[in-house]
Amino acid sequence: MASSDKPSRRGKHRARRSVKPVGAAPGTLIIDASWPAPRIDVIGYGPDESWTGADLKVSDLAALKGKWPVLWVNVSGLGDEAVLRQIAREFGLHRLALEDVVTVHQRAKLEPFGNQLFMVARMMDVAGMTSEQLSLFLIDGVVLTFQERLGDCFDRIRERISHGQGIVRSSGADYLAYALLDSTIDSYFPILESIGLLLSDLEDEVLENPEKSTAEKIHETKRELIALRRNIWPHRELLSGLDREASGLLQPETRVHIRDVYDHTIQIIDLVESYREVSSDLMGLYLSSVSNRMNEVMKVLTIFATIFMPLGFIAGVYGMNFDPGVSRWNMPELGWTFGYPFALGLMAGSAGLLLYVLWRKGWLG
Amino acid sequence: MASSDKPSRRGKHRARRSVKPVGAAPGTLIIDASWPAPRIDVIGYGPDESWTGADLKVSDLAALKGKWPVLWVNVSGLGDEAVLRQIAREFGLHRLALEDVVTVHQRAKLEPFGNQLFMVARMMDVAGMTSEQLSLFLIDGVVLTFQERLGDCFDRIRERISHGQGIVRSSGADYLAYALLDSTIDSYFPILESIGLLLSDLEDEVLENPEKSTAEKIHETKRELIALRRNIWPHRELLSGLDREASGLLQPETRVHIRDVYDHTIQIIDLVESYREVSSDLMGLYLSSVSNRMNEVMKVLTIFATIFMPLGFIAGVYGMNFDPGVSRWNMPELGWTFGYPFALGLMAGSAGLLLYVLWRKGWLG
Amino acid sequence: MASSDKPSRRGKHRARRSVKPVGAAPGTLIIDASWPAPRIDVIGYGPDESWTGADLKVSDLAALKGKWPVLWVNVSGLGDEAVLRQIAREFGLHRLALEDVVTVHQRAKLEPFGNQLFMVARMMDVAGMTSEQLSLFLIDGVVLTFQERLGDCFDRIRERISHGQGIVRSSGADYLAYALLDSTIDSYFPILESIGLLLSDLEDEVLENPEKSTAEKIHETKRELIALRRNIWPHRELLSGLDREASGLLQPETRVHIRDVYDHTIQIIDLVESYREVSSDLMGLYLSSVSNRMNEVMKVLTIFATIFMPLGFIAGVYGMNFDPGVSRWNMPELGWTFGYPFALGLMAGSAGLLLYVLWRKGWLG
Amino acid sequence: MASSDKPSRRGKHRARRSVKPVGAAPGTLIIDASWPAPRIDVIGYGPDESWTGADLKVSDLAALKGKWPVLWVNVSGLGDEAVLRQIAREFGLHRLALEDVVTVHQRAKLEPFGNQLFMVARMMDVAGMTSEQLSLFLIDGVVLTFQERLGDCFDRIRERISHGQGIVRSSGADYLAYALLDSTIDSYFPILESIGLLLSDLEDEVLENPEKSTAEKIHETKRELIALRRNIWPHRELLSGLDREASGLLQPETRVHIRDVYDHTIQIIDLVESYREVSSDLMGLYLSSVSNRMNEVMKVLTIFATIFMPLGFIAGVYGMNFDPGVSRWNMPELGWTFGYPFALGLMAGSAGLLLYVLWRKGWLG
Amino acid sequence: MASSDKPSRRGKHRARRSVKPVGAAPGTLIIDASWPAPRIDVIGYGPDESWTGADLKVSDLAALKGKWPVLWVNVSGLGDEAVLRQIAREFGLHRLALEDVVTVHQRAKLEPFGNQLFMVARMMDVAGMTSEQLSLFLIDGVVLTFQERLGDCFDRIRERISHGQGIVRSSGADYLAYALLDSTIDSYFPILESIGLLLSDLEDEVLENPEKSTAEKIHETKRELIALRRNIWPHRELLSGLDREASGLLQPETRVHIRDVYDHTIQIIDLVESYREVSSDLMGLYLSSVSNRMNEVMKVLTIFATIFMPLGFIAGVYGMNFDPGVSRWNMPELGWTFGYPFALGLMAGSAGLLLYVLWRKGWLG
Questions:
Q1: Which of A319, B177, B354, C11 could pair with B319 in a Cys bridge, judged by C-beta atoms 3.0 to 4.6 Å apart?
Q2: B36: contact with D, CB 8 A cutoff
């Protein structure tokens, strides 16, 4: 947090601790001052009609209950404890469930509270790889959802309700809960698709032009996949728990749909695991690529040194100053008619021989 | 997809997301415009006869039901929503099952819908390492299969039916379903066989002549094995689920056969896991091989430098221009009768000594 | 232990053996002479009142039992066998349980002894990454806790009791036990948060300026995470065991809270595992970074050698002493009018050519 | 298979696919032309007598059934479909079981067929690390075994039967089946023993004299262990299944023996896993050893370069041809009385200083 | 075994095969000639008295049975088949159990034989990291133990019995069995403690002065931990089996103690796993340390080469023999008044520039 220029990376490693101070009473709501104020949107619908109420007050809710077969109360923003407590009172939410609603770094889970089913799921936001907590209460005829902020992946569901598409209008609140979970799980696919494309690009980069930044990008991808896995994995238990849940809140038909979402979750988990392996292998390929490069560099150095050191040595010998005049043993070559060509020939021969040896070793190609 | 020259690699990493937009109603059929139109082929048979109808219309199907003890309706190509919906109506398929049929990147699974058993399996296509989704409905006396395109691994089954080979003609629809699953699982063996051969070749390559491309090939193989594992693994659950399935659609005799296919699946999974380990080890061997090569290169460089640097130094010393005329301390060697031979001897001695030391260190062999 | 300057690191690897000599009778209490003497603090409370007794004597305890609906007896320090045995007698503790209390390196566990529930948990101390054993007996109306030393993470619970905040005063002893376990588990979050920040910093360090010490810090972090995992993991069984425990000591309402603590434990385990993977990947990134650096160093060396060896060779050739006077073949260049500029040009050309080749190879950027 | 010089290595990676073509009817027997013809050996025995019939005809078998309390029919070689089918008819074998008999790359498994127990196990052949399939039918009073070829690890059992050693003669067919499985599992121990010795040798080699071939040998060992694990692992299920099998074919006393074989299997699996870890660690040690070597080579190079480059430079300086006659600034050293000794001293001093620095750095030994 | 100088290392990798030849009859006792002869020691005790009989004969045992509430017969050494068979007859041991007693490389296990409980456990011997098999029969009122040789970790138990310490005298044979298992498990702690200290030392070594031998020591430690894990792991099943065992031989009170030993076993397993991870990480740290060293060596080489190659080149240029007398273009510097200082200045400038660049790159610190 100290260095303001890297908030995203730094933020990713933060322990998603419950913001509750150690030892605080359970049921205490710790509201972060920066959170947006709650906005209550309601959709009520039945087979034949649907009604949308935007930005309502808590006091409006009591009158809406029971007016339609299904009532969806969506609260976006958790920034006002009083409002949240009023809503909780209105729908008889359990104290601990409400605490979970504002503890926004929960794992996905299913918790039955009396005749209510409380679920926590995590939606992915494509831009920026961040996840948002969706808290969902399935009550008789009512689905109550809490989101951290405005904006979600449920617009198509709203459309389907208002236009009466599909079977949503003729189904119960359990079907709506299923549809919301389905959209939540589906929000992981675009992320995975972009990671898949990124891995393809990184593979090309590793094979064709590995840079230092390539390793960083692979590492970044692995870290995102680790975070993604931590987010998606608990949905498996949530959904299999929901399938087994004996509660009368769930119709048999809905269970078929839930198993379908469960299958999607497994598919996402499979993909995340595959991608993690691919990115690990990619790091290995990168390292082998770096080693190969060093080999190449070393080879160039060795070839040059191997060839020029003997040449330099020969030149050095004939640069010695022994006096040929003193005796005929002292560097008679210096006085030869073809002394210089002889020396050059010696050099050419030595270089040629070495080049041949290196070529035979396969170092020159 | 952007770079058209590497479609195969790029394609492999794509997240096999359901093509359904996030939040679309379950039961929506998203048909890819590029898919081939459905072609309906029917085989009806009983102990004594068999009938083959090629490229039928949907309207022909109603009359065929019940005419033979077993009716196999095979639909190749999923490119026409209307046709698919008609078939679904004809055989009373569940809305969600039909959605699964056109969501062609499903994991293998078993889903009972009322008195029908719906299965998804994945066939491998030898050429190109691609997989194709087989959707199979086991209905009383009817097996209804959907494939993504024409061409499959079932030709021998068709022959066995038309020639009355084996027990297929005298068995029920459940046996046909088993036979199709058996062929599907068997389609993984040729792939594994070719990967096994490739690994052998790569091993030879790593040991004898490791190139940069060797690492790429190992990486490629690992990635294919990761994809293969993702494809084959869920068949395990499919088949063990089928064995446990209480449905009256399955004869006890068929369950014996299903356990046999299950065993094949486990065998494939075992092989895939073994191959993955072998290819990981191969990457390790490759890295050690690259390191060894660098060692060799370094040794050559060091040997040359170690020998020629002292020689060059000696030559350099006697190339100094101190004036022997000024004093008898100044390079008297230059005036010795055997000065030059002495210098050459010094060089030969130094080189010999160093060669001996290097030979003792074992660097020269 | 021999080198007194590194006690902390050395201490971390010590096998947390039971200090009991091999073969000692079970039930033997081995008291370390360095442990602080026990200090007994008592809080008694009911819905309407609370009473705090600090630094009591064992003999005071008998009179306090039954005076309040809930009695919390907290013993800090285990350094006096006689006192511990008196307390054990007073509350009817099992011989083996008392042994576990003083064997301060136990894993977290749950052990029912008759109508008592005995739990061992491990609290983390933020400063210094050390853990402390909390032994907790849940008896009818009494919670008896033993800590290794003064100072814990329960001050807020004490406040909540004395100020009557939350529901603690109106709940039973089981709720108090839950609250203590909750605080214990919560004590892991600050540690994880600091490790998360450290990992972010290490990541920056690896990417920007990897030092030898970076590897040490990563290794240190991994080791801490291994220890942390060993500490937190068994709480999972403790808490799931507590949830399943049929004992009448636990109210249904408390079980809901216990599942909540269980969720936190899973969340911590998830984080620890994620951090372990991140730190492993970081080590890999560090190694790739070190390799990249070596590549860079090698490249500089190779560039210099590649350019200067030919230059030096040319200079060496024209430093040879062949006598141009003897024949016109002997180094006629020395007598050319533009011999020197020719040699310099040769050098410049050779250097330019090599620079061009290296630039084309991409080594100069 | 293409390169005939490496059949063994190439063969090891082959996918052990069922030789059955994809889509062939179940129950089809695919006989490899190279397989040896079946040879039928029979041993009949009871508490008081035993009879051995070698190389019998199928037609002889009918008369032998029921003559002794236990009849062991052993068929070596699977190269004649007609004979196999006759035997199958004689003993009422299931169609699928017979197919499994000739599909010689099955995993170990247990399959009950009516009142018969069918087992597949894999024997190891010490020489050459190959495995052979043993198919065993336990029928009332009869044990029918099929092996791929002559030669097995059952000779001691034959001796015990014919000499009446141990309790085999007084026990039933289930005891014989147990004894055969026991020998089969025991056939893994010599292989493991030789791998254990090989690992010790490799460890010595890595520590004392790591060659390129050392890495190859470690890799080979790992691959063999991977194959071994794939062979042994399914016996675990086979034997635990046999222990749980409710069939009346198994006496309680025999189950005790089967648990004993099960224990041996677990012991083998443990060893294989340990050896795999040891060989992985060995590869790591090898890599560190290679790195250490490179360090050593680099150090030698650096020491020589560090010392001789300054020396060469000094020599080069005094080899320059500036004319001392032109000015007193031009290389006055050349005219000094002790110019040459001064230069040599400069060199010796520089070399000495550098040697001292290197020695202080610990690079010189 | 061939090289007598490394028996310990070589011995460690040997497959602990049952010494029984493949196919030998179960119940065959294979006695190694090198084993010590059995020595029988007996302790009989009850609440009020205890009696010790040292080095008894087998024939003495019959008279001792039933004389005391608990009789502990301890047999040290397995080198006499006749004696072992007599003991087995005396106490009605199962044939297979006796075979297990002399098969001294068994995994820990629990096997009920009629009204006897047979256990195999493995004691660690601190000096030398070897393990010894303890075979324990719990019979009504009798504990019969077999050890491979004299000397064990039970002396304190003997003392407690003879001095009447703790509750052992007033408890039954099941408590004695528990006490022996407890001591056996406790014998692992000193080993782990010494490995923990060794890891601390190795860590210091890796960080401060990594030698080639450091890698060997880490590898050795890992191998010991692999062996240790193989030894300790099965005790987990043994003890949990004992806790679940319905046999009337075990008092409820003893089960509490057994769960305590079980906890210790889990704690040891946890530690072994942690140490294995730490030692793996240590190997990684070692490799990074070796790489860092190579980097350092390379840097020194590169710095020297980078600085001296240009200097040498300049000296070489002015060592060329172009004749200044021929033309004014030929090396006029040689005749300059300040030619030599100019050349030296050129060298100093070049060296200074390069040093500055290297310093900026951070290579000089």
A1: A319
A2: no
Cβ contacts of E238-246, under 8 Å, gap ≥ 24: E238/E108, E238/E109, E238/E110, E238/E119, E238/E120, E238/E121, E239/E181, E239/E265, E241/E110, E242/E110, E242/E117, E242/E119, E242/E181, E245/E110, E245/E112, E245/E117
- The DSSP secondary-structure symbol of D69 reads S
Q: What pTM, to 2 d.p., does this model score?
A: 0.84
d(CA A320, CA D248): 101
Tens digits of residue pLDDT in B312-353: 999 999 988 888 888 888 888 888 888 889 999 999 999 999
Residue located via tokens 């020639």:
B163
Q: Please indicate if any CB of chain B lies within 8 Å of the CB of A192.
A: yes
Q: Cβ distance A23 to C157 under 8 Å?
A: yes
Secondary structure of residue A111 in the 3-state scheme: strand
| Domains along chain D with CATH numbers | 17-165 (3.30.460.20), 293-360 (1.20.58.340)
When scoring C16, C233, C340, C347 by the number of chain E Cβ atoms within 10 A, the one with the most, hence best to mutate, is C340
DSSP code, position A165:
-
Give me the residues of E, 289-328, that contact C with CB < 8 A. Answer: 289, 291-292, 294-295, 298-299, 301-302, 305-306, 309-310, 312-313, 316-317, 319-323, 326-327
> Which ranges in chain C belong to alpha helices (H)?
7-12, 58-64, 81-91, 95-102, 155-163, 173-186, 188-208, 212-244, 252-318, 339-360
Nearest to E18 by CA among E88, E101, E119, E79: E101
* C15 contacts on E by Cβ (under 8 Å): 189-190, 192-193, 195-196, 271
Which chain B residues are Cβ-neighbours of A309 within 8 angstroms?
Answer: 304-305, 308-309, 312
Collect all residues of chain B within an 8 Å Cβ-Cβ radius of residue D348. Answer: none
DSSP, res D106: P
Nearest to residue D91, comparing CAs of D7, D173, D6? Answer: D173
Can you list the positions of beta strands (E) in B13-76? 39-45, 50-56, 70-76
Instruction: Answer whether D236's CB lies under 8 Å from D269's CB.
Output: yes
Q: Is the separation of the CB atoms in A362 and B208 below 8 Å?
A: no
Query: In angstroms, what CA-CA distances link C40 with C75, C147, C150?
Result: 5, 10, 10
User: Per DSSP, what are the bridge partners of residue E218?
Assistant: none
d(CA E6, CA B236): 48
Residue with tokens 């011989």: C95
| Dihedral angle, C-alpha A76, A78, A83, A89, nearest 10 ° | 90
Could you tell me if C23 lies within 8 Å of chain E, comparing CB atoms? yes
Identify the helix (H) or strand (E) that includes residue E44. strand E39-45
Count other C-beta atoms under 10 Å from residue D106's C-beta. Answer: 21
Burial class of E23 by CB neighbour count within 10 A (0 to 12, 13 to 18, 19+) = buried
Element (H, E) at E97: helix E95-102
Counts of helices then strands in chain E (DSSP H, E): 10, 7
Q: Residue C295 in contact with residue C215, Cβ under 8 Å?
A: no
A199-249 pLDDT per residue, tens? 999 999 998 888 888 999 999 999 999 999 999 999 999 999 998 887 788
Contact C139, C91 (CB under 8 A): yes
